[in-house]
Amino acid sequence: MTDNSGTNSPSAKPNKSETSSGGLPAAGTSSTDDAVATVKDVSSQIYDFTGVPGKASEPGPGVKQCEGKDPKTHFVVYHPWNFAPTKAEELDTAMENLKKKLNTGGWVIKDVYHDNSPNKALNLIADNDSKKVSVWIVEYSKDATPSLGINVTSGCYQVPDGQTVDHF
Fold first, then answer.
1. pTM of the entire structure?
2. Hey, is 129 helix, strand or coil?
3. What is the C-alpha to C-alpha distance for residues 70 and 167, in angstroms, rounded to an integer?
4. Distance (Å, rounded) from C-alpha 127 to C-alpha 81?
5. For residues 92 and 142, is the Cβ–Cβ distance under 8 A?
6. Smaller CB count within 10 Å for the chain: N or C?
7. pLDDT greater than 60 at residue 2
8. How far apart are CA 151 and CA 129, in angstroms?
């Protein structure tokens, strides 16, 4: 789902057979509520993958339009959240656990790199093509409260005939 050629941020990788015009892979047909539930489930799985106790931030997922598609019938679900381990020293363990788990069960790590920020934060990008989701994780180890910034993004969904997108 991602193509990181020359950039340090996740972006869509075109696939002629399964790509919406905005570059995101087509995720199929779904109601907004069902697609949001799928992304919440993926976020919960990633939380479990950390393997250490901690707290996830609120709020939940949001819905936005697919670039180049009708905003009444096509949408993307995004879920940005933070994970703060109970013990700051477990942040590295959480990231190592994520590196291991995000190479199993349909997940494929696409990139691991240190960004250009002053703290040279570790970034991890992984895709699950069968679930049509991508995750971008940034390790904020030098912050006052060490945490992981996590952004789960779906592919481009189309609502069933007769329905419209519920943007929230």
1. 0.84
2. coil
3. 13
4. 17
5. no
6. C
7. no
8. 16
